[in-house]
Amino acid sequence: PNLVSDTCSVCPGNHRIRPNAAFPDLAAQTKDYLETQLKNFKDTSRADHDAKAFMWNIAGPLSDKEMKEVAAYYSAQQPPKGATGEDPTQIAAGETIFKQGIDSENVPACSACHGPAAAGTTMAPRLAGQHREYLVAQLEAFRSNARDNAIMHGNVEHMTDKQMRSIAAYLASL
Which residues are 32's β-sheet partners? Predict the structure, then answer.
């Protein structure tokens, strides 16, 4: 049996199949980020709604070795292709926020942590090519503290829904 196809293919998809925008596309996600998230699901320290509903039971039985295998598998996949059909005006607005932030709202440039091409870093996930709907949901969860992350909460707490949708449209298009 294959750990990834047996355990992980239903939600994020096994070979970059994007079955449901409610779940992230894990292809080319950074290995460190994936391992950290799996550990957080396993120890239940990541306690947002979807973590509780789906990932606690999936990650709970995984060994450290298996978590590393899953992270290695997804991080080695080709990155997702950007979505087409997004509104160019919204994409441009999102690109500005991603690269420059919003000084008047004390929102830093997302690229400072997620990298200039949104490919992720050892401390922040890859966002390029991610599902727009998933990104908006995560930003809303950070803003409301439903997903507990003090840094992200501070970065997005003053953002409007429109600004969040613009960033998501930009990132989805990459």
Answer: none
